[in-house]
């Protein structure tokens, strides 16, 4: 597994010079202190995943032509087409694999895991790379204090291979489009083609109904973790680590409280990374593994929520992961 964060760190102090906000508000309402930003306007999300995929290939001793499938979760693709997966594959010399993007916003990593395990279990593929590539700041309006404090950029890559012992045990992944207008970028796709008028209205930026999204994130994620716990007849003793999408520390706390879990079981890096959409869970997992927290054989409960609405929860055992 691997992850990459761009060098530039945007602190709450710097944000306070750009928009009417302050460190105290951002910290208490979101738990975020800083986020990494890809400053180059002409570098897309692929540039965040490419270093992670290169590192992954190197540390797992995988030759590019061995990779059979590359799936890229992204809410901020380089282009509408070609897929960001194709751009990444080209950069790392993967020439024959099936490559495609998944657009399921902040739940993207769980969607990738579910698809990768379906291809593995069916025997169709044996070497799959799942990545997340998120230049979230490309759709953030730095004049809108209600959204610009939340998002950061990052990329990740993980190699998924067959295993008798490790991997996804239970997955409950969902979507309900009834929520789609509450967390949306109106312009950029085919529904609102880019125009001077659309840009003047700021429709290229993320729009969110913060309170509505907050409530739904808590409800859907707690619902999904309950589904997983029930199906597996799990208790807290069956879970070594809980890692949810890093959107807001208060949302993470609500899921933890729902599970009656102690802080020590929760993996949280929101303070220095912010919300990196589909990259947020894998960045948090990889950092925790590098810190020596997550070890081979540990059992993890994951949960995510994002635009769509999409949401889900996964229970897995952590394999022989080269970190
Ligand atoms: N700095 C200072 N004040 C701010 C602010 C900021 N960055 N952003 C909002 N405020 C103000 C508001 O204007 C409001 O002032 P008012 O009472 O005078 O009108 C006040 O703070 C409270 O705003 P509110 O929107 O009620 O705050 P909140 O507690 O709901 O927090 C979010 C706002 C966005 C942090 C929160 O709703 C949230 O995290 N929602 C979910 C977002 C999310 O997870 N999105 C991605 C999902 S994948």
Overall description:
The protein has 323 residues and is α/β, with parallel strands linked by helices. The protein has two domains: 2-164, 3-Layer(aba) Sandwich (Peroxisomal Thiolase, Chain A, domain 1); 169-317, Thiolase/Chalcone synthase (Peroxisomal Thiolase, Chain A, domain 1, 3-Layer(aba) Sandwich). The protein has ten helices and 13 strands. It has helices at residues 12-18, 23-30, 46-60, 84-91, 108-122, 196-200, 210-231, 249-259, 270-273, 280-290, and strands spanning 2-4, 8-11, 34-37, 69-73, 98-102, 128-135, 153-160, 167-175, 183-185, 206-208, 241-244, 299-306, 310-317. Helix 3 crosses helix 4 and helix 7 runs parallel beside helix 8 (249-259). The model has no long low-confidence stretch (mean pLDDT 97). It binds coenzyme A. Coenzyme A binds next to helix 2, helix 7 and strand 12. Residues 21, 25-26, 29-30, 106, 145-146, 149, 183, 208, 210-211, 213-214, 217, 247-248, 275, 305-306 line the site of coenzyme A.
What is the string of SSEs from the N terminus onward?
EEHHEHEHEHEEEEHEHEHHHEE
Shape, principal axes of CA atoms: globular
Assign the CATH architecture of the largest domain: 3-Layer(aba) Sandwich
Helical percentage: 25-40%
Q: Report the structural category.
A: alpha/beta
Into how many domains do the coordinates divide?
Answer: 2
CATH H level, superfamily name of the largest domain: Thiolase/Chalcone synthase
Q: At the first level of CATH, what is the class of the largest domain?
A: Alpha Beta
Which consecutive residue ranges, at least 5 long each, have pLDDT under 50?
none
């Amino acid at each position: 597994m691997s992850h990459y964060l761009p060098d530039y760190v945007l602190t709450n102090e710097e944000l306070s010079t750009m928009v009417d906000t302050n460190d105290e508000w951002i910290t208490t309402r979101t738990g975020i202190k800083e986020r990494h930003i890809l400053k180059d306007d002409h570098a897309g999300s692929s540039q965040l995943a490419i270093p992670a995929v290169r590192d992954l290939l190197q540390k797992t001793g995988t030759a590019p032509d061995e990779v059979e499938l590359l799936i890229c979760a992204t809410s901020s693709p380089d282009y509408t087409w070609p897929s960001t997966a194709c751009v990444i594959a080209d950069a790392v010399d993967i020439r024959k694999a099936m490559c495609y993007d998944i657009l399921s916003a902040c739940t993207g990593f769980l969607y990738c895991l579910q698809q990768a395990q379906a291809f593995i279990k069916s025997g169709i593929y044996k070497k799959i790379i799942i990545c997340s590539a998120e230049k979230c700041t490309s759709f953030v309006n730095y004049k809108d204090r209600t959204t610009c404090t939340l998002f950061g950029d990052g990329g990740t890559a993980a190699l998924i291979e067959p295993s008798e012992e490790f991997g996804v045990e239970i997955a409950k992944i969902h979507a309900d489009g009834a929520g789609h207008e509450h967390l949306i970028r109106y312009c950029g796709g085919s529904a609102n083609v880019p125009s001077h008028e659309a840009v003047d209205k700021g429709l290229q930026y993320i729009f969110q109904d913060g309170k509505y999204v907050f409530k739904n994130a808590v409800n859907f994620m707690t619902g999904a973790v309950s589904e997983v716990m029930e199906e597996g007849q799990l208790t807290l003793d069956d879970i070594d680590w809980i890692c949810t999408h890093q959107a807001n520390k208060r949302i993470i706390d609500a899921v933890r409280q729902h599970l009656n879990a102690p802080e020590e079981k929760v993996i949280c890096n929101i303070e220095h990374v912010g919300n990196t959409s589909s990259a947020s869970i894998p960045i948090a997992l990889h950092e925790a593994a590098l810190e020596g927290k997550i070890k081979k054989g540990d059992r993890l409960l994951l949960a995510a929520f994002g635009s769509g609405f999409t949401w889900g929860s996964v229970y897995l055992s952590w394999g022989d992961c080269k970190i």
